[in-house]
Specification:
Chain lengths: 417, 244
């Protein structure tokens, strides 16, 4: 793959069915993408994750689609009751809502360009608009509260190799509805591929959405997800990101707080292994008064791993009584670990409470020594300190069974380091 | 049990221990007193195997040269240091930590590991003896513990791990009178022919509870005087200045 990676317009003909309007929209977006190529560090939003360079280094060629393929056996989660949705290589395969009133849930495969996100500056979104051929549409009716969580098994098959997959999701919560989602990524491929998702999340008045993003295993995938959320009054969004594991992963979340008294939470605990690269980028737009946002990002970076947090809080002039909090803490396990953090406040209202901060440092030697005087090896001591560091986030998960499950998953990651 | 010959230790190009000699036999209790900054905690750290010191001289524990033995192996061989300032370890549950510690040491000594139920039962008993509120053991290790709770937690660890050479670095500082009594009882009930204690303190009062066989004065990195518990009384009256 050379510097100016381009995709032929003929690729768009492979997507069916396609009306003329749709096709034009896609062609237009493809043109934009081909003009810009993949984002590079010259763009502020990508300065710590130059994916043009990263992709050039890792892909000689890229095939835009993947034919039908079947996953190997999947380890479904047994630790707690749940509804499930199975997605294979981006395609909605099936769903089962054992615990719910099915009339209240709309679910379908989704690639409707009417819902596309327009962002001229982000060529990955252009690319997604041009080529997305799969996705998930999920809508919860007004006043319906889910009994149990949904686990979205996001499975990638072992025959993926040098593929470029583009996907669109849309999740709508009706007024007074409630939903918990665990997005569980299972990557069976040993090879490299790119998965580019854009997601729309709409929370109507008084709706509550909790999501957990979890990677089942270490893998060679390259993931990018742009998530655009809109929050109505009194709505509540809470997201836990345990998204480390892939070779590259960038989660790019932008939330508009459009109704008063809404509450937006993003928490993350990451263990970034050797040679892995993970970025979390957020933009929280406080557009009306009396809203709250809270972000806490904790990252542990092992040798030659790289972590990035870019977080921006925007407070519009009328958004008085905004309460916004943002903190990033990183623990570097080696001299070759890298963490970049760029917290930003852009505030135009005067009666607000905003705070942000970021720290990064190595594991405290005195703490290691203390634990070692109690018989623990250095490795055990560091593992204990690291899991203690991440526990602060995991401990906030309210459901005991879900929390235990996540704790175990993270523990496994730690022991692998 | 412990033989120290001409021990010198420096850190950041500063010599702190300047040729220290000490011999502790099994079953003995030795007290070390001395002015602030004389090197008492440094001695404790060096014995625990802490990194960062440049060391010369000889330290033998049960006949074995300690110099090249890493921190955790010393602990596994039965050396225990109760810290002057126990560290706060966020996110780590105290009970889980205690169990991990005990089982790691058991495993290293080829003993059978203890299961959770038996462990919790044992901890409960020992915590009760030391007047420790059980609730703090389900909290994060030392985080938000009061000064006295931290010190008691050190003694609890000593009781659980059952070591042979026990170094108490100002365990009495910051304890109220009742706690001092409880902790001293805790130490006294652990005394045996096989165990030795090195008790670092500023106060003669502790030595009324824990009767030492020998008292040493450490000043400017050396032991400048040794004696019986009489010496502690004398120091209490006259201070360190008069000694030199
Ligand atoms: N890392 C270090 N770098 C430089 N000097 C140090 C370091 N650690 C300790 N020291 C110095 O070594 C000296 C001895 O310190 P130590 O903590 O051993 O004293 P101490 O006898 O325990 O005193 P106290 O009674 O106050 O607890 C002090 O002057 C201290 O400042
Ligand atoms: Mg000291």
């Amino acid at each position: 793959m050379n510097e100016n990676f381009k995709i032929s317009p003929s690729e768009i003909n492979k997507i069916k069915p396609l009306n003329q309007k749709d096709k034009n929209f896609r062609l237009e977006n493809l043109k934009l993408f081909n003009q810009q190529g993949f984002p590079s560090r010259n763009q502020e939003d990508w300065k710590f994750s130059d994916i043009n360079q990263i992709f050039s280094k890792n892909f000689k060629n890229l095939e835009s689609f993947k034919n039908e393929s079947k996953p190997k056996s999947i380890n479904f989660i047994k630790e707690f009751d749940h509804n499930n949705i199975l997605i294979v290589n981006g395609k909605l395969e099936n769903s089962e809502f054992k615990f719910e009133d099915k009339n209240k849930i709309k679910i379908k495969s989704f690639n409707d360009s009417n819902f596309s996100i327009n962002n001229q500056e982000n060529s990955l979104i252009n690319l997604n608009n041009a080529l997305s051929n799969n996705g998930l549409f999920l809508e919860v009716a007004d006043n319906y509260r889910f009994e149990k969580a949904i686990i979205i098994y996001n499975v990638f098959t072992d025959d993926l190799k040098d593929n470029l997959l583009n996907n669109k999701n849309k999740i709508i919560l009706g007024k007074n509805s409630e939903l918990h989602i665990v997005e569980y990524n299972i990557n069976q491929s040993k090879n490299k591929f790119i998965y580019n998702t854009t997601e729309n999340v709409i929370l109507n008045e008084n709706a509550s959405l909790k999501t957990i993003n979890l990677q089942a295993n270490q893998n060679e995938g390259f993931f990018y997800k742009f998530s655009k959320g809109k929050m109505g009054s009194n709505s509540n969004y809470s997201s836990f990101l345990f998204s480390s594991g892939p070779k590259f992963n960038k989660i790019d979340a932008e939330f508009d707080l459009e109704g008063e008294n809404c509450d937006c939470n993003i928490k993350s605990a990451l263990f970034i292994n050797k040679d892995k690269h993970q970025e979390i980028k957020t933009k929280i737009n406080h557009l009306v008064p009396n809203c709250k946002s809270y972000q806490k990002i904790k990252s542990v970076v092992d040798a030659e791993g790289k972590g990035v947090y870019q977080g921006k809080i925007y407070v519009k002039d009328i958004a008085q009584k905004t309460n916004a909090y943002q903190l990033s803490k990183a623990l570097l396990l080696s001299e070759n670990s890298e963490f970049n953090s760029k917290p930003e406040l852009e505030i135009y209202a005067d009666d607000v409470k905003c705070s942000h901060g970021s720290t990064s440092g190595s594991v405290d030697e005195n703490s290691i020594h203390y634990l070692m005087t109690r018989g623990l090896s250095k490795k055990q001591a560091v593992q204990l300190l690291v899991s203690g560091f991440l526990n602060e986030i995991i401990g906030d998960i309210k459901s005991n069974s879900v929390r235990k499950f996540i704790e175990n998953k993270i523990e496994v990651q730690l022991h692998g380091y | 049990m412990l033989v120290i010959k001409n021990l010198k230790a420096s850190i950041n190009n500063r010599e702190i221990l300047k040729g220290l000699n000490l011999k502790i036999n099994p079953g003995e209790v030795h007290a070390i007193m001395g002015p602030n900054g004389s090197g008492k905690s440094t001695l404790a750290n060096v014995l625990s195997g802490k990194n960062g010191y440049k060391i010369s001289g000889e330290v033998k524990y049960l006949g074995e040269n300690l110099n090249d033995i890493p921190v955790e192996e010393r602990a596994q061989k039965g050396i225990f240091l109760a810290f002057q300032y126990p560290l706060e370890i966020p996110g780590v549950n105290t009970n889980n930590f205690l169990k991990t510690s005990l089982n790691t040491i058991k495993k290293a000594n080829g003993e059978k590991e203890i299961d959770t139920i038996a462990f919790l039962k044992m901890v409960k008993e020992k915590a009760k003896e030391l007047g420790i509120d059980e609730k703090i053991l389900s909290r994060q290790l030392n985080v938000g513990f009061s000064g006295g709770e931290k010190k008691k937690n050190e003694i609890l660890q000593m009781k659980i791990l059952d070591p042979n050479l026990i170094i108490l670095d100002e365990t009495d500082s910051g304890l109220d009178i009742d706690a001092l009594k409880i902790i001293s009882d805790g130490v006294n009930s652990s005394r045996s022919e096989k165990k030795s204690f090195l008790v670092i303190t500023h106060y003669q009062r502790l030595l009324e509870y824990i009767k030492p066989d020998h008292v040493h004065v450490l000043s400017d990195g050396k032991i400048i005087k040794s004696g019986t518990s009489e010496l502690a009384l004398e120091l209490e009256k006259k201070g360190y200045k008069k000694l030199n």
